[in-house]
Please model this.
Amino acid sequence: MMSGASESSAASAGVPVVRLGSGEGARYELDEAALRRVLLRSDARDLPAVVVSVAGAYRGGKSFILDFFLRYLTAPRSSQLSGEWLGKEDEQLKGFHWRGGAERDTTGIHLWPEPIITTLNNGEKVAVVLMDTQGTFDSESTIGQNSTIFALSTLISSVQIYNLTGNIKEDDLQHLQLFTEYGKLACDGEDKAFQTLLFLVRDWTCAYEHAHGYTGGAALLNKRLQSNPNQKPELREVREHIRSYFDSIKCFLMPHPGLAVENQNFAGCLRDLTEKFRLALLELVPSLFDPEHLRPKLINGERVHMQDLFDYFRKYVDVYNSDEAPEPTTIFKATADACLLAAARAASRVYAACMEESVGGTQSLSRRMLADAHAAARAAAERVYAEKKKLGSKRDVEARLQELIKELQASMSLYMLNNDVMVRETMILARQTYDTAVSA
Ligand code: GDP
Ligand code: MG
Model:
């Protein structure tokens, strides 16, 4: 049922796809080739994407927990159900590099190199992409950059896991500010701008006050998201609006994994983790990845396929690299553009499928039949384009439609050409058969 991380890749690490360059006025570098290798793999490119991101400060245990996500995702269904997916007592924890140590990771986004193809309960296949978003989050000067990288990963993911240590602090909420603004633009009433935001609080020590897990998390979150008159106005606004822009906001309180993590030789073996930590993993991980809970990424209410995700990455990174600071309006425009591309691509897919069905065989057709097939396929494609929910101005929607029609016309010409060649070959063959018959 599951495929993906194989033996060999279990040893590999995350692939950096977005990196913050160095120096003054640094730009975000998108590694398109790397992104292409992950998102456009032939068995995954046409699947709806489920994108789970873990974002937060360096050395917060992000990669460590991502490796447990990988274990779950690559385990057979029976182990997922029995809890055996957690692993063996003496098995080293592998996948995304954890421990940091000497190589200090830079700000950026890493993806797991292989999307994990999983089947939803209704039998549909989806591709799960794991994303590791890292910032330093540790000084005033880096807050702008980190908000940016945090915003980028939130825009792209279906679940944003905000990894925090100890508690949900005032500064942590500050990173959500941009979203309240963007959310206002992107919400059209029916659809929320974003899906799930999960505050994952590590090393929660006040279990006597709020218990570990989702229940205690909900209580803490309620407290933190309450607004009061002493707060800065911006942060009060975040609190007042944030719930209306995310489909769901949750909080999970993780216990400390145990003193073994301080040991130099700690390899992430299960035997070194406390019982409480393991129980928390057993509650948390299936709640995110059980086929019943997986939610494909939606933008503007439409599913995002792996191929579309590629466009979103490009458009957003462009916004962040433009000379002006990213404004909710420019992000909105980028979303609208990528959304139109996705609608046009869905329409092209339908055109290709229709043509394949009517003229897919090797038989040559008359030009007339081919033209009819094209007209029907084009009409089906235009219907799909019209039905998809789109953002953006009427003019942009119309312009993209005209481009789509041009593209379909071009593929039609190609069909004609191929068909003419086939017709000619058939005629030559018939001629040869006739000649042989006559001369015999
Ligand atoms: P990242 O930089 O956020 O990806 O952090 P890593 O996953 O590389 O982990 C950094 C260090 O924290 C490692 O030495 C882990 O053993 C340790 N670690 C992992 N999870 C936890 C946790 O929940 N609490 C504590 N205190 N340490 C952890
Ligand atoms: Mg890491």
Summary: Residues 1-11 have pLDDT under 50 and may be disordered. The CA atoms of residues 113 and 206 lie 37 Å apart. DSSP finds 13 helices and eleven strands in the chain.
